């Protein structure tokens, strides 16, 4: 069973920066993509950014130019560098992994890490 362990959340003032990390462990034959989603109170979970095995990235319009997603394939870790944070970035951030194991494809989620941006 694959586990995702997230870290790096916290409280920061508007304009500040945080770096989230998510490390995957368990039986994984290959990783298709890794990404970050977020969910603010009273809102639906939304994609923040993701990155494919080939390194192609995709960002929500609201974070383009401020957030950067990257990955370390050897360490099975994905990062989200968040700069110029705004109060509207406040949410629980979830790591997401699409992977293959035992000839099948799976989707895994982390437990979430809180990011709070004060004005």
Description:
This protein has strands spanning about 5, 10-15, 20-25, 30-40, 45-50, 55-60, 65-70, 75-80, 90-100, 105-110, 115-119. Strand 5 and strand 6 form a beta hairpin. It starts with a strand and ends with a strand. It is built from no helices and eleven strands. By secondary structure, the protein is mostly beta strands. The mean pLDDT is about 95. The strands form two sheets. Strands 2, 4, 5, 6, 9, 10 and 11 form a seven-stranded mixed beta sheet that branches. The chain has a four-stranded antiparallel beta sheet with strand order 1-3-8-7, with no helix packed on it.
What descriptors fit this protein?
119 residues; mainly beta; 4-stranded antiparallel sheet; 11 strands; 61% strand
Number of strands: 11
Shape: elongated
- Enumerate how many helices there are, as a single number: 0
Strand content: over 45%
Biggest sheet layout: 7 strands, mixed
**Spans where pLDDT lies below 50 across 5 or more residues:** none
- Measured as a percent range, the helix fraction is under 10%
Structural class: mainly beta
**What Rg is obtained from the alpha carbons, in whole angstroms?**
14 Å
Oligomeric composition of the shown chains: single chain
Order of helices and strands: EEEEEEEEEEE
How far apart the termini lie comes to 40 Å
In round numbers, the mean pLDDT is: 96
